[in-house]
Amino acid sequence: MLLLFWLGVLGTLYSYFLYPPILMMLGARASQPGGSQATRSALTHATDALPSVSMVITAHNEESKIAQKIENSLALDKTGVDFELIVASDFSTDGTDAIVESYASQGVRLVRADQHLGKEYAQLCAIKASLGEIIVFSDVATELPADSLQKLLPYFADGEVGAISSEDRFISSSGEVAGEGAYVKYEMWLRSLESRVAGLVGLSGSFFAARRSICDQWDIQSPSDFNTALNSARSGLKAISCPDVLGYYPNIKDETKEYKRKLRTAIRGMTALARHPEVLNPGKFGLFSFQVFSHKLMRWAVPWFMLMTFVANLFLLNKPFYMLTFVLQIAFYGAALAAHNKPELRKGGLKILYFFCQVNLALADAAVQFIKGTRMTTWQPSKR
Known about the structure:
By secondary structure, the chain is α/β, with parallel strands linked by helices. The protein has two domains: about 1-25 and about 255-384, no CATH class; about 30-250, Spore Coat Polysaccharide Biosynthesis Protein SpsA, Chain A (Alpha-Beta Complex), CATH 3.90.550.10. Helix content is about 50%, strand content about 15%. The chain has helices at about 1-25, 35-45, 65-75, 95-100, 120-130, 150, 180-195, 225-235, 255-275, 280-285, 285-300, 300-315, 320-340, 350-370, and strands at about 55-60, 85-90, 110, 135-140, 160-170, 205-210, 240-250. Strands 3-2-1-4-6-5-7 form a seven-stranded mixed beta sheet, with helices on both faces. Helix 1 packs across helix 7 (about 180-195). The radius of gyration is 22 Å and the shape is globular. The N and C termini lie far apart (about 45 Å). The model has no long low-confidence stretch (mean pLDDT about 90).
């Protein structure tokens, strides 16, 4: 039981606290992915050097928001860019398609999926209809700064970059940019470390871009943010995080739906890895395999390591130290339960504790549902 206890502790801590320092050591001598800021700035001003762009907005029954998203996309600074805007309708049944078609005179193209098969299928339809060398993907709820294209395109001057991911920013209910939560800050920092080693193992699905060649093997059963990172690794390229390329989107209005979003994300991730187990072969994917194992598999295993630690601790209560660790665990889970029952307690450290427990409960739930055969390729987006 002593071995199981410490194995559980190590497994719980690894993905969050031990994996990042390993990345820091591996990437210590690596150059800045995407080139230096000076190099990217020079390329931005050499307008004849910018690649052509197809921007794809994926929408399913978004009649209340699609016009605002189109207007935001048309307002992007497209200086020196051969640009086309495509709305990929995932077989919408409301007024979304009609609204998109009303922008045809401004060059907006509607590509309608012939079936409701999910976001990735609609994206595939748009990819086949697109012409750009670089394909930019964005969700309806994500607002992009006017200089987004001018900032993201120069990263592709680095021949080792296959895809780029934006960094997430949240907008409060009052319309102001909200402060970054500890989790978001951590994830963005982790992405910056992965970018220096073998590249990201997942992108921000709400706003990312990829070379056309990376989109050739588009798996409609896997999340496009993971599949794009995988395709980059397959091609010997990297998917990288770009700290100056930002996507703004509002927090989910109904916080009770946040758990369902986490659950869906986890199930889709597990589905992707089950469909592409070859990515765990270090002989074929090198350090990228190590990153997928550490960031994905080990993180999905955290709730089971936590359970192992708790159960093993029950058999060690005859020793003072392990009596203390058990009391600390009870206090930890008790505080999370209190924060769950009383939202006003979700502040500071208690908010992080509650979020951590909620995430891992969702991961455990996702694993059980995945084993039972649940898959999610279509869903209704959480209202923001």
